[in-house]
Each structure stands twice: as C-alpha cells, then as structure tokens.
Specification:
alpha/beta; about 325 residues; binds flavin mononucleotide; 10 strands; eight-stranded parallel beta barrel; TIM Barrel; 2 domains; about 40% helix
Length: about 325
C-alpha cells in the first residue's frame, strides 16, 4: 500500500455507522470494480464496493470476497441487484451472509429479505433510490441509509437535480442520505454535506485509476471527455444509461430501433424484447470494457469533466479529502 498522509477524518452519521474515516463510498460498478479497487479504497479510509455480478458464478464471487478480506481489514461493500432480472440474487445473498459483508448496497426491487438477513449478522444495508416514494418504502423496510442517485450520475442516473434531491430526501427521512451523481472533487463533497447529505458515493472518478479492471482506452476516454459528451442511451438495458458519446454510439443511436420500440409496447412481446436488449447491451459493454474494439460503449457520468488524470484509488481519496478541507476553510 502506498504511504498515506495523515488527513483529518470527516465524521458524519455515515462514517459512525460504518466505522470508516471519510464519508466516501467508491460506488459498485459493473465490469469496473474488482478486488484491487475495493481494497485500495477501503485501505485509504473510505469504503470500496463492487457488484456481485462482476464474477460469473456465486462461487467465483465468494472467492473474490475472500481476496478482498485478505487485502483489507477495513469495511467494504457488495451490491446486489434485487429484481427479477437477477436469477442469482439468493445465492449471492448467501455468500454475503457467509462472509458477513459489512455493507450491502441494493438496487431495484424489494430489499426486505436482504435487509433482514444482513441485519441478522450485524451488517448494514443501503438502498439506491432516485425519488422520495421509493426512499420512504425502503426506510419503512428497515434499511440503514439511502443512496440518492441524481441527475448526472454514471450508470442509471436519476431524473432529479442533486441540488433538489438531497434536501428533499433529507427533510423527509430519518436515516442517512448518501449523495451520488457527478461528484469527482472535494468541494462537491462539501456542497453535498451542506445540502444535507451524510456522505457521498462516487463511481466515474474511480474508473480513471490503475486498479479499475478496464482497458486503458476506457480510462483515457474518461480523462478526455467533457460533461457535454455524456448522453443517455436505452440501447444497453432498455432503460436510459449514461455513456460517453463515441463514434459507435453516434452510429447506432440512443434509442431502441423502431421494431424493438413497437414490440416493447406489446404486452405479449415486451418481456422478450427486454431480455434480448439486456443481453446484447451487456455483451457490448463487456467487450468495450475489456478489449480494444471500435464498438465502444463506455459507461460514465457527467463528472468526467472534472477528471484529468489516472491516479491510484488511494490517492483519489486523499485528494478528495484534502480538497474538502481546503474548500471548508475557504468558504466565502
Ligand atoms: C461504469 C459504471 C457501472 C455501474 N454499475 C453499477 C452497478 O452494477 N450497480 C449499481 O448499483 N450502481 C452502478 N453504477 C453506479 C455507481 O455505483 C454510482 O452510484 C454512480 O457511478 C455515481 O455517479 P458518478 O459516476 O457520477 O460518480 C455504475 C456506474 C458506472 C459509471
């Protein structure tokens, strides 16, 4: 591990709940997060997380958790996709229970069973939300915090501006609210905390690190891209996802083709079109993430405009914390 400067901790209800130094989660990223990224972030005093689906079977996922535990003694997180599109959710949840994973982050679906089982061994559960209705539902189910995914985020961004979403959720919930979407610098972390967040979840910034498990072309593209280059496409999963506008994306367009669009409106064919689109989209993402191809589908959020270098994940955390304290001192 690279030597870490002694930075003053940033204490919030989230850091107390999770037992970490800085209120920063490196968000779980399909195809990007791996054992090295997660452990480097957790060793730096923040918390690294990864989706279980980055490993092809529950057995491989379980081995990956063992590797993470060997590389860090600090808390880390696993993301489970809880809806019906994920046939592995029960098996992957069993792996989390077996390893007593400190933080489970759920997306989509009903997280009740996850919350009950994870609380059973003393772990914590945060749920991704994009609006108040779902946030209230998961709070009632007993989750420990919500991740407020706003406009500008990488992955499946929410529709609401973080300037509104954070105070909106904060005023109506009693559990910690974690800001996600477009954050890549320390002054934005301060801004999020001022708006009522108890911490932040950051994805895109951590793609531009040596640890991230994707090609250098993808990392360089993150460094080069501006916020104006991020577009929303339905061609990956059927629901809008943020990607860098590459010549390939421009060629294939952002929407489903007219036949798919037509079949999606039909209740009999809807399910099959979704499945086919999902498989094709994941294939394209996977190819572009791991090898050089002209079919570049690179998932990233608007924060790309604030990312100018590829540096180790631990240094990203250090820089964010430094920038946070500088911004606090220089507040007008
Ligand atoms: C390439 C990529 C893949 C992602 N995959 C997932 C995922 O599998 N599960 C999940 O809950 N969130 C996923 N996200 C969302 C991140 O965990 C995080 O909430 C988001 O990136 C925050 O926005 P930012 O990228 O603007 O920092 C992904 C984001 C990116 C950029």
């Amino acid at each position: 591990m690279a030597s870490m400067e002694n930075l003053k901790p940033i204490q919030t209800s989230m850091t107390k709940l999770l037992g970490i130094q800085f209120p920063i989660i490196a968000g779980p990223m399909f195809l990007v997060s791996n054992e090295d990224l997660v452990s480097a972030v957790s060793n730096s005093g923040a918390l690294g997380a990864t989706p279980s689906l980055n490993w092809r079977t529950p057995e491989l996922f379980s081995q990956a958790v063992e590797t993470i535990k060997a590389k860090t003694s600090k808390p880390y997180g696993i993301n489970l996709i809880v809806n019906k599109s994920n046939p592995r959710v029960n098996q992957d949840l069993d792996v989390c229970v077996k390893h007593k994973v400190p933080l489970v982050i759920t997306s989509l679906g009903n997280p009740k069973e996850v919350i009950d089982k994870v609380h059973g061994y003393g772990g914590k559960v945060f749920c991704d939300v994009v609006d108040l209705k779902y946030a209230l539902k998961v709070q009632d189910l007993g989750c420990d915090g919500v991740i407020a995914v706003s406009q500008g985020a990488g992955g499946h961004a929410g529709p609401i501006s973080p300037l509104v979403l954070l105070p909106h959720l904060k005023s109506k919930l009693r559990i910690p609210v974690i800001a996600a979407g477009g954050i890549a610098s320390g002054n934005q972390i301060l801004a999020a905390l001022i708006l009522g967040a108890d911490g932040v979840q950051i994805g895109t910034r951590f793609i531009a690190t040596p640890e991230a498990g994707v090609t250098n072309d993808y990392k360089e593209a993150i460094v080069k891209a501006e916020p104006e280059d991020i577009v929303m496409t339905r061609r990956i999963s059927g629901t809008p996802a943020a990607v860098i506008k590459t010549p390939y994306i421009e060629k294939v367009g952002l929407d489903l083709n007219p036949i798919e669009g037509f079949l999606l409106k039909n209740p009999w064919t809807k399910k099959y079109v979704r499945m086919v689109r999902y498989v094709l989209g994941q294939n394209a993402l996977e190819k572009a993430a791991h090898k050089t191809t002209w079919k570049t589908v690179w998932s990233a959020g608007q924060g790309v405009g604030l990312i100018h270098d590829i540096i180790p994940a631990g240094q990203v955390v250090q820089r964010l914390v430094k920038e946070y304290w500088d911004a606090r001192e220089n507040l007008p």
